[in-house]
Write a structure and sequence with these properties.
Layout: H1 6-22, H2 26-37, H3 42-51, H4 58-94, H5 113-127, E1 131-132, E2 138-140, H6 141-144, H7 156-159, E3 169-171, H8 177-190, E4 216-225, E5 237-247, H9 252-267, E6 273-278, E7 283-292, E8 309-318, H10 320-325, E9 334-341, H11 343-350, H12 363-366
Parallel strand pairs: 1-4
Antiparallel strand pairs: 2-3, 4-5, 5-9, 6-7, 7-8, 8-9
Helix pairs in contact: 1-2, 1-4, 2-4, 3-4, 5-11
Bound molecules: 3,4-dihydroxyphenylalanine.
3,4-dihydroxyphenylalanine binds near residues 176, 283 and 313.
Amino acid sequence: MSDWSVEQIEKLPSEAQSAAAEAAGLADLERVRVGYLGRDGKVTQALKAVGKLPPVLRPAAGRAANEARQGVEAAITARRERLEAEAAAQRAVADHLDVTLPGYGPEPGHRHPIMLVLEEICDIFVGMGYEVITGPEVEWSALNWTALNYPPDHPAMDEQASFYVTDDVMLRTHTSPVQIRAMRARHDEHCPVRQLAWQTPPMEVLPRCRCSPAPVRVVVPGRTYRRESVTLTHHDIFHQLECLLVDEGISFADLHGTMATFVREYFGPNTRIRFRPDFFPFTEPSADFSINCEMCGGRGCRFCKDTGWVEIGGSGLVHPNVLIAGGYDPAKVSGFAFGFGIERLAQRRFNIEDIRTLYENDMRFLRQF
Ligand code: DAH
């Protein structure tokens, strides 16, 4: 046995054990294993050398070599198990999942400034006994115009250049069509005849029933659309609040009293109100209404364009044809209505100069409210 003595062979397991103990990781240990058990490893060489010994020496040397191989294998396996356990323990620390840590919840949202203003206004009307209702933003043109007493091709429609979906369906240009919906819904709740076929086309613009059911007292907040160039002060999307009251014996005094109560609640107790004659097809008489400018106390400033008054919206007594379109008899009931834009109020309340910032969804802007 040229290079290998039995003594040398017998030392291989303990040598291998020390080498394995020094292996810092599994890759190191693999190099140790190859150094002993690989094709040119020491154990392999020893085993090969045994084959070349004179027959008389072979059994003892062979036994020694086989035992050495088993010893080396055992040493390496023991070290591998140890290293694997250490690695697993390290992974367990690194990947540790602490189920008691708080999770990542969704970031809580909050009201948009437009909604803050709308909700505050609706609250005031709820306090006066009004019901808050909504209507569709995609509306029958029959309700946006015809049922509101706009004659065909009336020039007032030009002022409200519109987005049409089909000839009969459009994005509503104001919340006023919900006046018709509110009256008809009340009618359908109460009228035993229920002959107002109006939910599906063709729209019946002037129903025959005039049974004049229970009173209507509603406010309608909502989004409206007009074909406008978007500027600092105008947008093609905006919001309105509509108010409608229909009952027996309603007069302009009720309109004035309701509106005065509202503006004092919303703008402050010293707010005064001014009506000026105006025209709307769905009211008669019609008036625009303004409040005194609190910025300058009426002396004139850029907020009121030097007039001392700030225009808020339109109003009037509900036109008989509109009552009829809603299923009410103008001989039995009367009503008032008004409507105004919300953006301008929100801009004043929060000092927002550019109307466009209200729709850009820039979180840096929205987080301020
Ligand atoms: N709908 C009108 C507009 O958008 C505002 C308006 C005027 C509403 C008079 C009313 C009203 O209810 O009576 O310009």
